[in-house]
Amino acid sequence: MRTPPLLVTSGEPAGIGPELCALAAAAMAPDARPLVLVGDHAMLSARARRVGVAAAWPAYDARAAAVPPVSVWHVPLVAPVTPGTPDPVNAEYVRTLLALASDACAIGAFSALVTAPVQKSTLLDAGIPFTGHTEFFAERTGTPRVVMMLTSGPEDDALRVALVTTHLALADVPRAITRVAVAETLAIVDAQLKRHFGIAAPRIAVCGLNPHAGEGGHLGREEIDVIAPVISEARAAGLDVSGPYPADTIFVPHHAQAHDAIVAMYHDQGLPVLKAASFGGGINVTLGLPYVRTSVDHGTALDLARDGAKIGGVDAGSLGAALALAARMSAPDA
Hints:
Blueprint: E1 6-9, H1 17-26, E2 35-39, H2 41-50, E3 70-74, H3 91-106, E4 112-115, H4 120-125, H5 133-141, E5 147-151, E6 160-163, H6 173-176, H7 179-197, E7 203-207, H8 222-236, E8 240-245, H9 247-250, H10 253-256, E9 261-264, H11 267-278, E10 283-287, E11 292-296, H12 302-306, H13 317-329
Parallel strand pairs: 1-2, 1-4, 2-3, 4-11, 6-9, 7-8, 7-9
Antiparallel strand pairs: 5-6, 5-10, 10-11
């Protein structure tokens, strides 16, 4: 029985997602898992030509006995697109891409989902509540908790940073750091590293919330009242978890390399470190969904999409890495 193809959403049509899809498709190895690109067929073909890719991609046919290396699941745009200029009129098109892709992956029609970046502000301007891909897919699948994890690459020794909270205002973070939230995050990270990354006994480091991990309670009590007790309970349950560590020391390479993943309390505690080390080649992974989902580590780059002279230099490295990791995580023997 053949492994289903990878599904790739092309993201914000005014951003660089369509060009990234074309470049990634052109760079595929002959024996790579087939790709199905989700988006407006004519728009994807036109944007492929901008980056020198001859896109003679057939329409995706779910009933076909064989799947071509690259095909397009056509979803029509609502309005014409000007690269670099998002239009809220097309926000429903973007939402539809994500909804169709999630539903198809949830029933096993595709082996994994890989997403190009979307423009959150455009969705919000159109009145569509949208915090991020991670939260959208969790709600769409009815998954009570998922974990956003970024990794510096598909390699076994990559830096991996998982988050207890994701797209929250900083003022809202402390009350979201609960024992349940931390415990569930640790359990998901441990289970998914075992299942999808082949790590038999994951070593997980946990950041404190406050500077110096609270300085013994002088700079906050979240470490004492919430994080440390959960770590103790996780260790008693057999997880190799340690901390809470000050975030300004656990990411020092000597310490980080001694762990398979680091759990940070909030978005900008952990991700700036990872992106500084691997931007353009990093991968965003959603742990805990009923299907494998990976994504790029960057945004829509509207300025590049707008500039015809610069678009030819767009680097599809992050999308290529996301595709490679999705294929690896969803391999039949994974």
